[in-house]
Amino acid sequence: MEDAAIREGFANLRPDSDYDALYQSALCRAKADWLVGINATRLFSVLYHKTLTVGRVQTPTLKMLVDRDAKILRFQKEKYYTVGIQSGSLKADSERISEAETANSLKEKCTGANAICVSIRREKKTEQPPKLYDLTTLQREANRLFGFTAKQTLDYVQQLSAAPASPSPAVVRSLPMVATAAPAATASPAAAASPSPTVRSLPPEAIARAVMAPAATASAATAGQRY
User: Fold this and answer.
1) What is the CA 50 to chain-centroid distance, rounded?
2) Strand-pair category, 178-181 with 197-200
3) Tens digit of pLDDT for each residue in 66-77?
4) How far is Cα 165 from Cα 197, in angstroms, rounded to an integer?
């Protein structure tokens, strides 16, 4: 802790009674560890002649996992039906119906009838901007976009992080060229029939921006996609 935080704590001391609840909760945990953790572990280990650990946290958690696994194993597929209506771009679906006769009856009642909207609910949602890359995602995207290996991406990021805010010429020159297969615009018919890989150099600033930018703006081809 810093000196300023220690001085602030002593300057704003609170009575011990404010922390009675924390003391009681800690006391309950200690007693539960003794009653359940120590004694029950000893009991089950002696009964079954092997070390079986029991705890106030691990045992209820284990039961939750077992119950969930049992539900998955006992799961039975059930066929259901829904009835939907559509008017232009507006769509509405019924709840799940287990019987086909009930679904067909509802469908017949809706066919040719008028639908009335009885309520409208509007919600305002805020979409957070994409988060910055972590190293693993950055390496995966750099490999997908530029064919960089994981070590290459790590080396470039280390160079960029050690460089000033604007990449220096030395750092930019160290970024590799990108190979693409495309026929030349003025190639002869014979050459166009069998295009050979040509090497083009992306602008250094574009490579630096693509390596450091969030995934949603890594390139124009991936705009609007989430990873």
Assistant:
1) 41
2) antiparallel
3) 999 999 999 888
4) 34
